[in-house]
Design goal:
By secondary structure, the chain is mostly helical. The protein has helices at residues 6-29, 40-54, 69-107, 125-140, 143-157, 168-176, 179-208, 214-234, 237-260; strands spanning 113-116, 121-124. It is elongated, with a radius of gyration of 24 Å.
């Protein structure tokens, strides 16, 4: 008959619970795993499966009872780490959404929006299309496996019960959010610049010949040219997304190392 002592049960619980908290927090905000269309039971089951799988590879856990204030502090620490790692990938995917917003506004598609259940707000159709293309490209490049590998390796750099986190890491994360505007505008710049030239040309035409109904030709021209340029952009978007993914993964690893540098 197999007997399980209280010490063994405590060890098994700590090997599972605290990694499970970090992984669950990560999946709650990560773009792929945190989507609202995925049931919460599936997210919890996947997090539990990953936690059980990596349990033999984890460093020793702190000797703190599960039901104690020390355990509560460790749990909060794991939530913060998981959310910070997940927000990095959320920022990466927000870049293409921002680019879709810039392009859609310039093309006159600001009214073409719908409710996005994943974010709880209205989002432009073009932003949603670019987001789905980016997500498929991310899966095709095995980016989800690289992110999971980085998350698992974070337990070596930031073991459970690590003595504090470096606050400079969160300032670094806030500054990295500027990538949303900088890289998003860089992606949308060819279309925005071309459509801006068309708008300026139509404005000059309207001033020189007021009897012409520029508004009747302005919107179709901007929409047609925007769609053509968008087709050209989609053929080469992979060359932009690959460095963006690499930058996000590198920053994620650097963020983990910065949090451990105290």
């Amino acid at each position: 008959m197999v007997e399980v002592t209280s010490d063994q049960l405590q060890l098994w619980l700590t090997l599972f619970f605290w990694p499970f908290v970090r992984i669950t927090s990560f999946m709650a905000v990560a773009p792929l795993w945190g989507h609202s269309s995925i049931p919460n039971q599936a997210k919890a089951g996947l997090a539990a499966l990953v936690a059980i799988t990596i349990a033999p590879l984890l460093p020793p856990m702190p000797e703190a009872p599960i039901f104690s204030w020390a355990s509560f502090g460790i749990m909060v620490e794991q939530i913060v780490i998981g959310l910070a790692i997940g927000l990095v990938m959320h920022i990466v995917f927000a870049v293409v959404q921002a680019a879709g917003e810039f392009i859609g506004l310039q093309m006159g598609l600001a009214f073409a929006s719908f409710f996005d259940p994943s974010s709880g707000t209205n989002i432009m159709v073009l932003s949603r299309i670019l987001y789905m293309v980016t997500l498929l490209m991310f899966l095709a490049l095995n980016g989800h496996l690289m992110v999971l590998e980085t998350l698992v390796m974070s337990f070596q750099t930031l073991p459970v019960g690590f003595a504090g986190l470096n606050p400079n890491a969160f300032e670094l994360l806030a500054r990295y959010a500027g990538t949303i505007f900088a890289s998003g505008l860089l992606l949308a710049l060819p279309l925005v610049a071309s459509l801006l030239i068309i708008s300026l040309s139509l404005g000059i035409l309207n001033r020189s010949a007021p009897q012409l109904t520029v508004f009747n030709i302005g919107f179709p021209a901007s929409l047609t040219v925007g769609l053509v340029l968008l087709m050209v952009l989609m053929t080469d978007i992979g060359r932009f997304l690959q460095p963006l993914f690499s930058q996000g993964l590198a920053f994620m690893q650097g963020l983990i190392e910065t949090m451990a540098d105290i």
